[in-house]
Amino acid sequence: MLVGMPLGGKTCMLHALAEIMTNLFEKGLTEYTKVLHRTMNPKAITMGQLFGEFDPVSHEWTDGVTANTFREFAQMEPPDRTWVIFDGPIDTLWIESMNTVLDDNKKLCLMSGEIIQMSKTMSLIFETMDLLQASPATVSRCGMIYVEPMAMGWRPLATSWLDALPEEVSSGDGRDTLQDLFDWLFDACLDFVRLHCQQLISLSPMCIVKSTLDLLTALVTDAINEENPAENRHLRMWVHASLLFSLVWGIGGCLDDASRVKFDEFLRPILGGKEPDLPPPQSIGGRCDFQTPESGLVFDYFYEFKSRGKWRHWNDLTRGQDKFEGMEIRDIIVPTMDTARYKFLIDLCLRANQALCFIGVTGTGKSTYVREKLMRAIDHDVYKPFFINFSAQTGANQVQDIIMSRLDRRRKGVYGLPMDKIATFFIDDLNMPAQEVYGAQPPIELLRMVMDHGYVYDLKDMTKASLINLYICAAMGPPAGARSDVTPRFMRHFHAISMVPFNDVTLTRIFSALMHTYLRVSL
């Protein structure tokens, strides 16, 4: 069993080991063998689909994914090694059916009466976040490897990101300067958020740093002008400003309204060189030339990549957009600072194919902003939007049926939209599905399987169905009442952005615009 929190490297470790052993075998090293592995999420399908079941009408037996995989691997000729990987929560609802496989018998006993003997080259691997719902009998039958992501911290993630930098950014002292900026800002901001701020959902420091680096990747990609390299003469300043923007929305993006003010008051003195314990690094001249303007909060600005670059207020993007002639009052969305920044983030993440999740209480505009953006303000020649609303009764098979019904069969075992369009799914009320008795949420596990591995199992014949050109964004309320905590193994794929309640200025702007529109139409 591989056990550990997200971003510890469990999945990468397994896949890297399998690839290395296969490569060494192909190079002629006889002590190694080729490795074939098959991954399934036991909570993304029903028990019958996992192991097999009798049809209630015809009483005909249908094999499940595990039965098919075991039979296929048991019949393979040695010396190839085969790994059956169960990637998902472990609980007694399904793991107890594996007891005869885990003990010395190594036999899978099906309800049909069939017994499949594991071959000597087969291995069972369980990949999970914790063992809270596993019985001592199950744990005692397996070897344990605990993968702890916090021991090494965020620096391996940052190093990996720096190693993949484009030449335009890393050339000269660009890479070392970015490393200095990370060392200067990341630890201080992460500690402050952990000790003094309130997040709408709990995120680990590793997830926060990954989100920050992903946003920085998207911004750097936008900043680099590949067609005209001469335009990149200010790229160094653009990248440093992009780092600040990514830091604000990566580390501070999931904070509540009061914590955003605290984060602003903490960050500004550091950027201004007023904190003697955190002086700006010498690689940027001992001073920060890319800080935001003094007025407002650091959350109120975005960076424009023109000439030397400059910070602009979100309200600059709303000017001239308050004309609503011919529109019904109920269809009007008044442009505000909130609409500008959230739509900017949706655009940024769409272009970079990075999943985005908005979190906020009822009435903050989560669903409205996303639906407006996907229906009216994206290129429908590239993106085709679909909408799924979750409820307490939503099941994994139901979600899979909805997704598969929107996609075409491209070739055997591969599904996607025609003409290489990107199927854009917006999942509303993401954390509404009811938890099972041991805490798992099958619809969430199904989506995690899609985002982790890129496929599901066909519900008719239990064969692998790969899903291509898929983008998922979501919205949900803070966990409370009927809304559950979503597993961190799924949330680590998303940029988590909090939508705070409207302030008085925004409410006044919305009311005034609607009132003026109504009076112009009525009088």
TrEMBL record:
Xref: InterPro entries: ATPase_dyneun-rel_AAA (IPR011704), DHC (IPR026983), Dynein_AAA5_ext (IPR041466), P-loop_NTPase (IPR027417)
GO cellular component: dynein complex
Domain Dynein heavy chain AAA 5 extension span(s) in chain numbering: 178-316
GO biological process: microtubule-based movement
Annotated ranges, domain ATPase dynein-related AAA: 1-142
Source domain of life: Eukaryota
GO molecular function: ATP binding; ATP hydrolysis activity; dynein intermediate chain binding; dynein light intermediate chain binding
SUPFAM superfamilies linked to this entry: P-loop containing nucleoside triphosphate hydrolases
Stored PANTHER family: DYNEIN HEAVY CHAIN, DYNEINS HEAVY CHAIN
Protein name (database record): Dynein_AAA_lid domain-containing protein
Organism expressing this protein natively: Mesocestoides corti (Flatworm)
